[in-house]
Each structure stands twice: as structure tokens, then as C-alpha cells.
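Researcher: We're teaching a course module on how sequence relates to structure. For the next exercise, students receive a sequence and then see the predicted structure as C-alpha cells, so they can try to spot secondary structure elements on their own. Here is the exercise chain.
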Amino acid sequence: MSELTRRGFLQGMLVAGGALTLAACGGNGQAMRIQHADQTGELVANLYITVLASGRVALVVNKCEFGQGVSTGYATLVADEIGVPIDHIDIHFAGANPAMNGAAKIQITGGSTSTMEAYIPLRHAAATAREMLIAAAAEQWHVPAKDCRVVGGHVEHGGEKLPFGELTKHAARMPVPSAPRLKTTSEFTLIGKHDRRIDARSKVDGTAVFGIDVSVPNMVHAYAIHGPVYGAKPLTVKAAAAKQRPGVIDVLAFDWGVAIVATKYWQARAAAAAVEVTWDKGLAHDLDSAKLQTALRAYDRPGQPAKDYGHVDEAFDRAELKIGGTYEAPYLAHATLEPQNATVSVTGRTCEVWAPTQSPTITQAFVRDATGIAFEDITVHVTLAGGGFGRRAYGDVIAQAAQISQRIERPVKLIWTRESDMTQAYYRPVYSAKVEGAVRDGKVSGAKLRVLSQPILLSATEMLGAAMAALPRPVMKMLRSAAQSIFSTSSFGDIIAIEGIANSPYQFHNFELTTDPVQTKIPVAFWRSVANSVTGFVMEGLVDELAVATKQDPFALRRALLPEHSKQSRVLDALEQLSNWSAPLPEGRARGMARHFAFDTECAQVAEVSLVEGRIRVHRVYCVVDCGIAVNPDIIKAQMEGAIIFGLSAALDQEITIVDGVVQQRNYDTYPLLRMFEAPEIVVHIMPSEESPTGVGEPGLPPIAPAVANALFRLTGKRLRRMPFQRALKEYV
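Model: And here is the predicted structure for the students to work with:
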């Protein structure tokens, strides 16, 4: 059955109320299921699971696969619960469909929520199909359903066996169970076990389709020229010579830049050299990141209260020793290996999109605002993505492709260059955090933190618009404008900027946290682990400084500040043992440790560090993570390794600097990823658990920067409070 036919059938038959909500079909729905089964041999058990006549299971995944392993994770849950080998699961990625909305009320992949959201509901969906198949076999054999079982894609009873494919038509006539029995952890055969990724072969042999691989009939290619300053608009465009180049179809000017459209991509790119553009000053023409950081250091306003308990002023007045300083982090790009791209076809008042998007819903919002096409008339097909990290939750490149297609009336594939990706990006915000700690009688007596950062919500109003898709456009615009006004005032604290601090499990006797928003014209976005990528550095730097001030072992002080018998304490115990913390190291090496709680997951790390010809070298990282039950341990291990490498790249070398509105980093030569020869040995331990799974894709990142910084302090005596460390070490005063 084609994807389009199945989509139409499901939309006509099922009504879903949220993330992976089952739609129990009675009445006419049951009749439609039977008719469909009789015609195709397929059992459409629910919105997500269809058992095919071949016995294979088609699974609709409402998330984007950008390397984090969600397709394998979801397939594992379904295969185990329904009772088929995992290679009998066929994955289909859901396009834009309100029935596929998650907990955020839009369809989006982010926040390390995918497995958390799906763990029970998706197993429930699979168990529903399993029980319908069992009921069909039991009725055929005239035996009690409770005496039958599923093994390897068959229903068995005694010595008899029926494959799923022979039961689908009969199963369609069975009632949909409202409360199917879920397997216990002792019954799992796949969940919690090591298994290969189901998409590995297609990625190796080249059959996997990423956004950049899409090809549709009558498609042309577009190359985008963007201005030197973010938000610059073209004033004049001279393109006569470019239009004479081979394959060039047209050269078009938009508010965001200039597009060269050609039969082939390289024809368009070559022709760009013959286009002369003059630009206006751009939105960010007066922004200088170095001056911004200087201004943040000098900022002395009190800030908006975010968390306050105890008697902080009294604790600092009575302190025998005070420590602290200003922790800083720069703008960062996401720098996904697959550059930003989209293929879009606008035909009259309808639009079809093929893109590696983290949010089909937000894609619809971007395209609607760019073209005026109604939300419901925008179809989105989600492809594989070569990295996301939050960047692909935005649809700017997709909107540009839609505008080009609308103008030339043909399908268009637009691929940004790396230079456009770096200079026209949504960035992780710049941060400045003043931290202070008070010590009395050799113990920590208080802590104060003030966080300054650019609010992500000010640049994320498209998400608000996507969430309000059903509202009339004038009302939606009014509410988005109101949200911008609220978040742009210094009277509103930035709740995202302080995550990881406001919800820290540390128990200080006296504590104060304040925050103020910073305004610039550069857009900012969710970046892997969001504020935790900085607040982990800030909090674990503060606690390490307090450990030095109180002359306590870093593990010992953290245990004293954390609840007894907590998840955090258990992870610390495991990490201390795993890293052999107290053992001596070779001369010239030092260890540092850090922990952080984010996305309901506790992760702690020890980094072993040295200096090699003045360059920071991380030799080994020990990582312990408690993320509930490990659905796929290999994927969790890979996610911890990936987050550590990603975080190390940022901590050691990466930054986006801006001079007179112009981003200085344009490619990987000036925005380097950690090279293979510099990558540390990484040892990962996953804490055993039978609790529901928690986040995995992002929690491995926050501890790595502070673990390295704390090790460097023990190695050099220099407290690095600014990232990237390599530059901070050279400039240390």
C-alpha cells in the first residue's frame, strides 16, 4: 500500500489526541478497517502500526532521524512488544500531520524527549496489534487467547503455528483492546539488549535518502547568495552575464538575498561569480561580539530574581572566604555536516516540501509566512538528516526554497553553502554569568549567580506561530508580536537561560539566582542541550572552586551538597570507581570531574588532561549515565560519545565572533571540529535501571567542558572561566 493511500485511510478512520495516542476504532472505523484488510491484506491496528500481508510490520515514526537512533529505538520497542525480529520492522517517517503532534503540541524532534514520550504509548500500540492477532488465531483454533503466545512473528498454541500475514484479515475483525497487557522487563528479548542499528546498511551502501539526496520530476537547482551582514537586503543586482551562463534559468532577488536557478547545482554555483550585488547595512551591522562581552562584564544591574532561599546577604556578610568570577561562553553555530537544504514544489495555492526537518509543523509555519499558502495546504515529507542539534527545527532555508519555487513555478532544490550555513545561522546565545561562593568554618555557606544571555524565545516566535496554526493569521500575528514585546523587556527573566541552575539538585543553605535578557539583532536558537551547555560549565565550575576553597575532594563536596541516596550520589559512586579517581597519574597529567542533571538524566564525567606543546589534550573521558532503562545500550553509548566529542569541540576551539555585523568564521578551517587523532578514549557506563527511559541525546554534553576546565586547574593552577579554552589559556591573566 502506498504511503499516500495509507495516510488517507488513517486520516479518514482515526482521530488522535496527542503523542502516540491510540485511536480505538469502533463503528464505522471498524468497518473501514475490515474493508481495508480485505482489499490489501493489511491490518491497520492504529495510527502507528500496520501489519502487512507479508507478516512484516510497518511503523510510522513521528520524529526525525538525524543520527540519534530514534528509528532503531522505536523499532526495538515495537518489535519486542509485538513479537517480531527487529529486521521485520519497516520504518516510515511521518510527514506533517496534527495527529502526530507530541507533548509540545507540535510535531518536533528535540529536548531528548523521543524515547521518553514513546516508551509506554508505542509499546501499547504494539501490544494492541499483538493481542488482535492472538485473538484472531485463538478464534480460528477455538482455544482461549490466554493460552496462545507470539514468537518470532507467529502466533503459537501447542504445536500449531500461524504467521502474522495469515491472520491480518481475521484480526481486523477483532475488537481493539483498550488496555492490552504490556510485557514485563523480565520478558524483554530486545529492549535493554545490544543490537545493530536498523539504518546502518542503507547509510553504508548509499541507499539512505537524506535531504540533500532528494530528486523529484522537473526539479531545478538553486544557489543562494547572502549578504555579508546578517539580515542584509540586496539593493541592486547585476545579473546579465550570469544569465548567459550554461544551464542558468533565472536570477531572482528577494529580501533575504539572491537566488541563481539552474538545471544543475554546479551550474548555479559557477554562475554566482558573475552576479554583482550591492547590499544595505543589514540588521546586525553594528554588532561586535568582543564589545558585547566587554559590556556584559561591566553590567552591574541586579537582575530579575529567579530563585532565592535562605539568607544570602547574611551568609556573604559573615563569610570568612569568598570566591568566584565571571564565566563566559560565545555564540556557537550548529555546523551540521549535512548543510542546510530543502526541495520544495509550489503549485498554485499548494506546496510540497521534502526536507531534513526536525519539525514539520514549524516548517509549515515558515512556508506559510513566506508564501501566503494556507497551513493545511503545505505537505511536508521528512527525510533523514545529517545532524540537527536544534538547527533543523527552523525552516528558513525551506522558506527560501518555497519562495524560489513560487516564482519560477517548478520544484526547486536549494542547498546552502557551508559559508551561508555559518554566517546566516541561528546561533547558541552568548552568555555571561557572575558566580560567587561563600565559605565559613571550612564549609560552603552560600552561593549567588547572575546569568546574562540572549533569550532564545525572542528568536523562536515561529514555534509559537506553529503551535497556534489553527488561529486566524491576524490573531496569530498579534500574539506573536505580543510575545516578542514581553521577551524583549528586561523586566522578564529568561527561564531557558537558567535551566540547569534553577533546577540543580545541589542543596545550598543560602542561594540566589537572577537573570536578565540581552538584546542583539543576531537570531539565537536551541543548540544541543540548550542552556545546559553553559550552565553545566557555570555550576560545576562554581562547585569545583568551592571544593578548592574548602579543601575538599570534588566528589566529597558534591556528595555533601546533593541529597543522600539520590540518583546523583549513586552516579558519583559509580564514576569514582570507574575512573579510579584516587590512583596516581603520569607526570604532566591531571583529572577533573563534573556532573549535571538535564532532560531527567544524570550524567557525570571525569576527564584526564595534559598540555602537549601548549595545546590542551584530553586523553581519556570516563562517563557514567543514569537514563532509566536502556532501550538500546549501544545507541546510548554512541550518544554519550557523540555528545562528548561535540562538547569538546565547542569547549576547546569553537566560537562565532562578529565584527561590525560580519561573522568571522565561514567554514571548518576557522570553526574546527575535534579531529580523530585528538579524540579521547571514552569509557561509558550505563547505570542499570528498570525506570522509564529519560533523555539521552543531550545530557552527555554539559559535564565535559567543566570536567576539562577543572582538570586544567589542577594541572596548571589557572581557573579558565571562558570558552573556548584554547584561546582562554593563551590569553590567561
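Model: If you want an answer key for the exercise: The two ends are 67 Å apart (CA to CA). The first strand starts at residue 43 and ends at 44.
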